[in-house]
Amino acid sequence: MLTKRVAICAVAQTPFVRDMWYKRFQEMCFDVVEPILKETGANFDEDTGIRNVITCSDDVFDARTISDNAVTDPVGAHYRGEEKVSMDGCNALGYAAACILSGHDDVMLVVGHCKESQPESRDMCTNLAFDPFYCRPVGLDNTNLSALQARAYIERSGITEEQLAEVVVSSRRNAAKNPVANEKGQVTPEQVMASPMLCDPIRALHAYPVSDGAVAFLVSSAERAAEFTDRPVWITGFANCMDSYFPGDRDLAGTEILARAAKRAYRMAGVNDAAKDFDLVEVNGAFAHQVPMWLEGLGVCGAGGEFISAGGLDDKKVNLSGGMLSGNPIMLGGLARAAEAVLQLRGEADGRQVGGAKRALVHGTTGPAGQHQAVLILEN
Amino acid sequence: MTQKHKKNRNVGIIGIGQTIYSSHREDVNQPEMIHEAVEIALKDAGLTIDDIDCVVHGNMELFQMVQQPDCWHTIGTGAYGRDQFRLTTGGTTGATLVAASDNLVASGMYDIVLAIGFEKLQEGHTTGGITNMADPLWGRSLQTGALTGATAGEMIEEFGEDRAKRAAMRHRVIMDKHAVLNPNSHRSFGLEFEQIDDLMKNSPPLVGELRLIHMCSQSDGACAMIFACEEKAKELSDRPVWIRDHIAVHREETFTMFSSNKEMRPEITQRYAARKLFERNGIGNPVEYFDVFEMYDPSSWWGMDWLKNFMLLEGDEHLKMVEDGEIMIGGRLPVNPSGGVVAANPIGATAMARVAEAALQVRGDAGKHQVPGEVNHALASGFGGTFWTVMTMLEKNLDWQEDNNG
User: Fold this and answer.
1) B90: which chain A residues are within 8 Å (Cβ-Cβ)?
2) B250 and A257: CB-CB below 8 Å?
3) In A57-121, which residue ranges form alpha helices assigned H by DSSP?
4) SS3 call for B327
């Protein structure tokens, strides 16, 4: 069990916006690192300061080979260590926890950035995640594989158009209270159900909006946390799990891989019943159907559709940040979820604050239609 | 005050697998090539994939134009159903994967970790890929891939043209003499010292005195390593190689900051990293302490210059070590008995292959390129980005905690 050995001492986010054309990603990183240093007093001293920075980005989205090279300076890694976790940022936090627990580091920055507005189409980027022989030539990408997944999930679960629409409505309602959320426009179920078909059965409003943004955390050992904050949030569980690659080899509508990651993370944190043990849940569904699917896999609910109809999203405080459906770049899905959880557990979530929140469940996915799943548990 | 390095628990290397390194591996695709290395590493450790708790994967996306290739490669890595991380840091990636595995095991989160570095550079355009690393506004029009002749120019200025050029070519021939002993080498020509004069004149120049023969290749290949916590390492292996410490030192994104003025230039990262690492581990004289050094030497000029910086040498001590053959197998400090990076360079695997080769030397399993005598202390270095350095210290015995040698 991890208990309270790794602390998140501070968090900073840029606002997530449709196109941050006025900033390069280097400046976006600087914008989140600087407030953290100011708030915590952490520095880059050779012996006692931040000696290792975990970055999170993707070379294809950045259109730069070794794109962490471009941010070494703004994240303060000049003559310090820097290691880039090139997958959902949730894993960057999990890896940072390992660095602290190993004894190798005692204070670190975790900085993620992504500009989905930069490529002509984000589907062009995720098409490159497929092998060049079988899947790429037929045009598979994250959106259309997720559509196949949505169809399979609808078939399996019988989830209705109305229930899926409610996921979007709830996301936008929560986003309105989150100052960094991108898409805050309120929508009705009718509007969602009448929105243009993007990739059958995924409609335009079912899909996460294109966003740019950056997130940073200061992570430290328990021994040093008091130097940086009087409100530490503890990483008490982390695990992830990889599914198979070929879509035909995967149970696209299944949640076994996520359940395996969750089981390992829950064991670490001493969570017995995911439906009861969390005060809030931040789940990384980039498409509306994935929210109930992942909630099922995480064990937060039984049948997702019924859970939604019964008002479960509100009851279980699911995605108070607005979630992916109000807009985070795919690389930062888990990091933005973690950022919201940290704010909630520090009592800094203002108008959307959950009173007395003690423990939060954070989820992140990497790869086409959630091939890789990560689960992070935070407590105050 | 330099803090002593202290790990939560010890980490041992218990499995090593390398494919052959080659300019073309058209017989296999990426996951198949990775699978070769994974199979060798598992066999070496006497394990099956079911024993692995976590897989760590890394390479550069734009070299092969595959985004998040760990997803596709799952069919070759065996990551299905397991925890998996992907880390990339340019040329240092392989060394970063070792550092990450060291951290993940030492943390207590995972007992046994499999790390995989790979590249199949034949499938992309390496020099184009590396040039794309530079800032599109300020650096890209000047970037020439990984080619830079500045070190050659400076060494010629410092040590005289004939001596510097001769020493660099001697370094190159020594690396080739090592490479011919390594069956995994991509390039092994059978060069002789008698050819030095000829090569100094006739090897095609790339940038100034950096000539084609000095420069590393682009290769296809994969390297896999298995790491275990002390308890498991002792249980599963009769010869685990212990990771004593690692250090990463990166720097800002241009090669050129202050480079025209030597006085204003910050300390080279190789020297800074070595100084820090040796200081906190109480290593006073690295040349004497280490029994073998596997260095990421992208060219013979850098290999020679960095020997000085990694070993904290002064003046022309490093040139003398090359001229006197002290870096050869059987010499005072054998450098790159594997042949080094000029012999094979599958970039995402290259820095891991340095650690793997150093570990093979500690085990005494390096075959024809095994250095004579007992190898108790080994050093490996990685290079990437704009002079990024990652160093790994390996030990045969778990005795450094009580007694800091050096």
Assistant:
1) 65-66, 68-69
2) no
3) 59-62, 68-71, 90-101
4) coil
What is the reported pLDDT for B127? 86
B167, B201, B236 - which closes a domain: B236
Residue type, B91: G
Domain limits of chain A? 6-120+210-228
Q: Using the Cα atoms of residue A153, residue A154, residue A157 and residue A160 in order, give the sign of their dihedral.
A: positive
| CB-based contact B90 A66, cutoff 8 Å | yes
Contact: A82, B89; criterion CB under 8 Å = yes
- Partner-chain residue, chosen from B66, B80, B250, that has the shortest CB–CB distance to A81: B250
| Cβ contacts of A45 on chain B, cutoff 8 Å | none
- Chain B CB contacts of A112 under 8 Å are none
Question: How far away is chain B from the Cα of A329, in angstroms, using its nearest Cα?
Answer: 15
CATH of the domain at B204: 3.40.47.10
Mean of the per-residue pLDDT values for chain B? Answer: 94
**Is B288 found in the same domain as B321?**
yes
Per-residue pLDDT of chain A (380 residues; tens, 9 = 90+): 567 899 999 999 999 999 999 999 999 999 999 999 999 999 999 989 999 999 999 999 999 999 999 999 999 999 999 999 999 999 999 999 999 999 999 999 999 999 999 999 999 999 999 999 999 999 999 999 999 999 999 999 999 999 999 999 999 999 999 999 999 999 999 999 999 999 999 999 999 999 999 999 999 999 999 999 999 999 999 999 999 999 999 999 999 999 999 999 999 999 999 999 999 999 999 999 999 999 999 999 999 999 999 999 999 999 999 999 999 999 999 999 999 999 999 999 999 999 999 999 999 999 999 999 999 999 99
Q: Is there a single domain that holds both residue B329 and residue B349?
A: yes
Q: Do B74 and A85 touch (CB under 8 A)?
A: no
Structural domain for B260, as ranges: 146-216+244-395
* Contact indicator for A286, A330 with CB cutoff of 8 Å: yes
User: What dihedral do alpha carbons A268, A272, A274, A279 form, nearest 10°?
Assistant: -80
Same domain for B151 and B275?
yes
Note whether residue B15 is domain-resident. Answer: yes
Question: CATH number for the A6-120+210-228 domain, one of 3.40.47.10, 1.10.10.60, 3.40.30.10, 2.30.30.520?
Answer: 3.40.47.10
Does A245 contact B96 at a Cβ distance shorter than 8 Å?
no
Q: Is residue A101 within 8 Å of A6, Cβ to Cβ? A: yes
Closest chain B residue to the Cα of A87, Cα to Cα = B86
Asked whether residue B279 is assigned to any structural domain, the reply reads yes
Q: Based on the fold, state whether residues B278 and B391 are members of the same structural domain.
A: yes
Cβ neighbours around A322 below 10 Å, total: 27
Q: Same domain, yes or no, for B120 and B248? A: no
Tell whether B46 and B179 lie within a shared domain: no
| pLDDT in the model for residue A3 | 79
**Cβ–Cβ gap B65/A128 under 8 Å:** yes
B253 part of contact set with chain A, CB < 8 Å: yes
Query: Given pLDDT bands bounded at 50, 70 and 90, which one contains residue B146?
Result: confident
- Work out the minimum CA distance from A17 to partner chain B, whole angstroms: 23
Residues of chain A positioned with their CB less than 8 A from the CB of B100: 83, 95, 98
Domain count, chain B: 2
Residue B53 has pLDDT above 80, yes or no: yes
Give A151-160 contacts, CB < 8 A, sequence gap 24+: A151/A200, A151/A201, A152/A252, A152/A253, A153/A252, A153/A253, A153/A289, A153/A293, A154/A201, A154/A289, A155/A253, A156/A253, A157/A253, A157/A292, A157/A303, A157/A304, A157/A305, A158/A305, A159/A289, A159/A292, A159/A304, A159/A305, A159/A308, A160/A305
